[in-house]
Prior knowledge:
The chain has helices at about 20-30, 45-55, 70-85, 110-135, 145-150, 155-175, 195-200, 215-225; strands at about 10-15, 35-40, 60-65, 90, 140-145, 185-190, 230-235. It is of the alpha/beta class.
Amino acid sequence: MPENKPLDGRIALVTGASKGIGAATAKALAGAGAHVVLTGRNVKQLEAVEDEIHAAGASSTIAPLDLMEPDGIARLAAAMAQRWDKLDILVINAAFLPTLTPITQINPKQFNEALTTNVLATQALISAVDPLLKRAGHARVVGLTSSVGAKPRAYWAAYGATKAAFDNLLETYASEIEKLGDTRVVVLDPGATRTDMRAKAYPGEDPETLKPPEDVASRILALVQDDIPQFHRANA
């Protein structure tokens, strides 16, 4: 194993990799030797992240993807299967935060986008890449969640409900594959982090009081290397 490259030879897929925690995670995984597939809707931002990865001497591939598109995930998985015979690391980071509002005033369009991005796309992604994960032998799946998924909070129902379903999907998947290989599943709550989503939820908060996305990325990098249980809940 090359020095300081513990993930050499690994293939990783990071959703929502154009900025924030996703971008930081992609850079961390690539820096540790993995070839990282970057997905997201903003092509220019994905290219900027890839440029940083390549400038650091690491490797990556951008795969622009809108999780709202019905066939986008299937096309991505098919393209990956043609190029690689496995997927060692899957980081499910992309999420949509609807406007914080009472349940009686939830915007149906925004709620639908949250359900599609945070829940339906998660199921579709796991289903599509499951064969690649199983062929990896010791794959790791990391899903970024929120505390409101486990503990409801006023005005957060539209987002919290999707994260509760997200957590359930990942834990159930871990249970279903328990005896089918060595894929391990982690649900990670990043906590208060300096991201655009956090700024949208707490517009009056001083971002300098929050930890940077790189701290969460470091936690993810450690988790995909650690010997963890079949299913593991963690905090950053």
